[in-house]
C-alpha cells in the first residue's frame, strides 16, 4: 500500500506487490506457464504460503518472503513440531558428488494403518543433495525388494552407482536375504553400532523432520490419522523443494535437477476441500460436473493432484481440480476415520436383541363354514340301512 498524497485514502500498487515477492517470483518463474505463476501468487498472504509449503520454519520462509517479524505465530506448528531444548549441532562434512553416500532407515510400525494398508516407511537420503525418497511398506520383509528397486532407479536416471549405503543394524539390514540379494550390487554397506543411533544421524533427523511436517499439516486441517501415509509423502515432496541450511539456501531438488521447474504444479494446502472434474461422456445435463474430495498431495508419475472421495472410496489424480484452501474437509468436532478400501465394512447390528422380543402366541386356524345345506338320514336302530328311501340320501344344494 502507498500514499500518493492526492487523496486521503491509501492506494494499492501492483508494482509494490510484485516487489514484495522477489524470491517467490524467482521460484514461480520455473513454471511452464507465467500466467499460472502470476495467478498463484496474487493476493496470497505469507501465512497462506506458510500453509501451502508444508509449514516451513521462519528462517526458511524468510528466504522466500521478506518477513520482518521475528516470530511466526502458527498454532499448527506449535502443536505438531514442539520439542525439548536441543544440544548444539555437530558440523558434518557433505559428500562431494551425488550418491557417493546414501543414508537409509526404517520407521514403524504405525499404530494406525493407512488407507492402503501401510504401517512402515523407509527413507533414502542422498548425502550430497539431501534429496529424500520415501517408500511406504506394508511389512518389513519388503525392505530388500525396495532397496533393489531404488538402486536400479538411481542407476537408470543418473547413470551412477550408489557407493555406500549407511543404515542402522536392524534385522532387515543384516539378515541373510539382504546379504544375498542386495549386497551383490557392489556398494559398501555401513551399519551403526548397537544402541548408537547417532551414527545414523542424518536418517534419524530426516525422520523427525518428515514426521514434524506430516503431523503439522494433518493438525492444521484436522485430517484423521488414517491418512498418515499420504501426509508423509506430501511432507517429503515439500521438504525436497524448501531451502536447506546444509545446502546454503539451495533446495535438494535443484541440486539434482537444476534445469527442471521446482514446482510442476501449484502447491496447495494439504487436507483442504477440493473438487475434481468428472470426465464422463455419459453424464446427463442435470448431473453434477465435479466430485467433492479431500486433497492428499502430489503424484510422482503424473502432473496432477492426488484427491480422495471418502464416500465412494475412490482415488483421483487430475489436473482439473479447484480448491477451497481455507476449508478443511473434516470438521474438528467430529473427525471421521475412514477404513481402508480393502477392509469390508461391518454388517449393521440390530438395536434390539432378538431374545428381548416377547414370544409369539401359536397361530389359530379358523375354517370357514360350508354354506351348503346337508340332509342326513337318521336310521332307527330297528331298521336296516337298505330300507332307507332314495330321496333321503346326502344332497348338496
TrEMBL record:
GO terms for molecular function: nucleic acid binding. PROSITE patterns: INTEGRASE. GO terms for biological process: DNA integration. Residues 94-260 form the Integrase catalytic domain. It holds the Pfam family gag_pre-integrs. PANTHER family: REVERSE TRANSCRIPTASE TY1_COPIA-TYPE DOMAIN-CONTAINING PROTEIN (PTHR42648:SF22), TRANSPOSASE, PUTATIVE-RELATED (PTHR42648). This is Retrovirus-related Pol polyprotein from transposon TNT 1-94. It comes from Sesamum angolense.
Amino acid at each position: 500500500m502507498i500514499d500518493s498524497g492526492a487523496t486521503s485514502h491509501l492506494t494499492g500498487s501492483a508494482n509494490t506487490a510484485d516487489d514484495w515477492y522477489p524470491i517467490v517470483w524467482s521460484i514461480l518463474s520455473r513454471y511452464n506457464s507465467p500466467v499460472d505463476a502470476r495467478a498463484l501468487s496474487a493476493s496470497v498472504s505469507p501465512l497462506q504460503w506458510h500453509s501451502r509449503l508444508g509449514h516451513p520454519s521462519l528462517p526458511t520462509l524468510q528466504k522466500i518472503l521478506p518477513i520482518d517479524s521475528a516470530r511466526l505465530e502458527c498454532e499448527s506448528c506449535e502443536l505438531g513440531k514442539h520439542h525439548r531444548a536441543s544440544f548444539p549441532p555437530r558440523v558434518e562434512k557433505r559428500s562431494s558428488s551425488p550418491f557417493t553416500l546414501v543414508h537409509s532407515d526404517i520407521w514403524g510400525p504405525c499404530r494406525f494403518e493407512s488407507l492402503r494398508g501401510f504401517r512402515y516407511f523407509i527413507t533414502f537420503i542422498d548425502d550430497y543433495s539431501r534429496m529424500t525418497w520415501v517408500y511406504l511398506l506394508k511389512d518389513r520383509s519388503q525392505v530388500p525388494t525396495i532397496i533393489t528397486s531404488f538402486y536400479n532407479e538411481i542407476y537408470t536416471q543418473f547413470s551412477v552407482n550408489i557407493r555406500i549405503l549407511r543404515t542402522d543394524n536392524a534385522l532387515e539390514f543384516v539378515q541373510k536375504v539382504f546379504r544375498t540379494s542386495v549386497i551383490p550390487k557392489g556398494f559398501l554397506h555401513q551399519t551403526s553400532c548397537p544402541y548408537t543411533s547417532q551414527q545414523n544421524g542424518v536418517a534419524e533427523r530426516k525422520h523427525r523432520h518428515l514426521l514434524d511436517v506430516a503431523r503439522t499439516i494433518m493438525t492444521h486441517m484436522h485430517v484423521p490419522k488414517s491418512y498418515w501415509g499420504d501426509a508423509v509423502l506430501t511432507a517429503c515432496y515439500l521438504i525436497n523443494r524448501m531451502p536447506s541450511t546444509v545446502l546454503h539456501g539451495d533446495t535438494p531438488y535443484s541440486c539434482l535437477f537444476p534445469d527442471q521447474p521446482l514446482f510442476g504444479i501449484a502447491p496447495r494446502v494439504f487436507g483442504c476441500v477440493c473438487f475434481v472434474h468428472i470426465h464422463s461422456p455419459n453424464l446427463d445435463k442435470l448431473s453434477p460436473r465435479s466430485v467433492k474430495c479431500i486433497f492428499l498431495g502430489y503424484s510422482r508419475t503424473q502432473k496432477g493432484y492426488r484427491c480422495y472421495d471418502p464416500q465412494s472410496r475412490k482415488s483421483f489424480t487430475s489436473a482439473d481440480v479447484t480448491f477451497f484452501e481455507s476449508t478443511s474437509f473434516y470438521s474438528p468436532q467430529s473427525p471421521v476415520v475412514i477404513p481402508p478400501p480393502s477392509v469390508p465394512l461391518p454388517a449393521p447390528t440390530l438395536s434390539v436383541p432378538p431374545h428381548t422380543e416377547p414370544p409369539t402366541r401359536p397361530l389359530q386356524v379358523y375354517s370357514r363354514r360350508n354354506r351348503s345345506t346337508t340332509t342326513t338320514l337318521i336310521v332307527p336302530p330297528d331298521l336296516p340301512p337298505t330300507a332307507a328311501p332314495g330321496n333321503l340320501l346326502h344332497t348338496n344344494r
